[in-house]
Design a protein that fits this description.
Layout (H helix, E strand, L loop, with lengths): L52 H12 L5 H15 L6 H17 L3 H21 L4 H17 L1 H22 L6 H12 L8 H14 L4 H13 L3 H13 L7 H18 L1
């Protein structure tokens, strides 16, 4: 199972400001690293009509594996849309559409494309949840797109705090290990980066990050966000320990871009801790 830190930037908001464009885990999975993004107008020829849902899923997954090139993500979205034209309520298509849309929105440099991607991702995530509410995929990627939308819109951010919490808490009830414990990471970011008047709580954020790392110690973005939270709590030595561990980690094969996101985030933190 791929992990959020292996597939997106971190879902979140800048600490101390609600919200502000930038990182958001992923999450952290931010455009801290150049991905060679292209404008939304860069599209590819349509895939052949009539491909089976199973074939479309395989094709889309292959394209997603090359997501360092955003054009591949856009191609994957085309494949999924075409499959949905004949299988509109298919769960596997819906949650993948939410995932691909989140990644595109999180990494695109085009504001209009970002906004559309997150809106499309929310729609796809809702469809997935309606189709199979007992599975984690739909809830997770719906919550991720709520977070992405909150990143670029102050009003959306204020309105969607509870939506993000609800979806991620549902993921934890279904499978706390989903996406490498990244639901803990998202909840931690919500508490870390929300205004105190709306429930922001650095200690609570730290507790969520620590819980996630206990079940997924190789989640580099979780570790990076824990380091940030320690620094926010003036626990600088603990922050530095997390940085040291992260920099000694080896990226999971095929997920080097996401590891690089975490490293870039940590290096920014290192500058602040000097």
């Amino acid at each position: 199972m791929d992990q959020l830190y292996n597939s997106t930037r971190s879902i979140g908001f800048h600490a101390g400001k609600w919200p502000k464009p930038g990182i958001f885990l992923l999450i952290g999975v931010a455009s801290f690293v150049a991905y060679g993004c292209r404008k939304a107008t860069s599209t590819t020829p349509a895939e052949p009509v009539g491909v089976s849902t199973a074939d479309a899923v395989r094709r889309a997954d292959d394209l997603y594996s090359a997501r360092g090139d955003l054009l591949k993500v856009r191609q994957g979205i085309v494949v999924l849309r075409q499959a949905q034209a004949t299988d509109a309520s298919n769960y596997d298509l819906a949650w993948r559409m939410a995932k691909f849309s989140y990644y595109l929105g999180a990494h695109s440099s085009d504001e209009a494309e970002q906004d559309k991607a997150f809106r499309d991702g929310i729609s796809a995530g809702k469809l997935a949840v309606e189709s199979q509410s007992g599975k984690a995929d739909g809830h997770f990627w719906l919550g991720a797109n709520y977070g992405g939308s909150a990143q670029i819109s102050t009003l959306a951010g204020l309105a969607q705090i509870e939506d993000i919490k609800r979806e991620m808490e549902t993921v934890l009830k279904i499978d706390e290990r989903y996406q490498g414990g990244s639901a803990y990471m998202v909840l931690g970011q919500v508490y870390q980066q929300s205004p105190r008047i709306l429930g922001g709580d650095t200690q609570k954020a730290i507790e969520y990050f620590e819980k996630g790392l206990r079940i997924a110690p190789d989640n580099a973005l979780l570790r990076a966000h824990l380091a940030e939270a320690y620094a926010d709590a003036h626990r600088n030595e603990e922050a530095r320990k997390q940085i040291t561990v992260l920099l000694a980690m080896k990226p999971t094969p095929s997920y080097e871009p996401e590891y690089n996101d975490a490293v870039a985030l940590i290096k920014k933190l290192q500058e602040k801790l000097k």
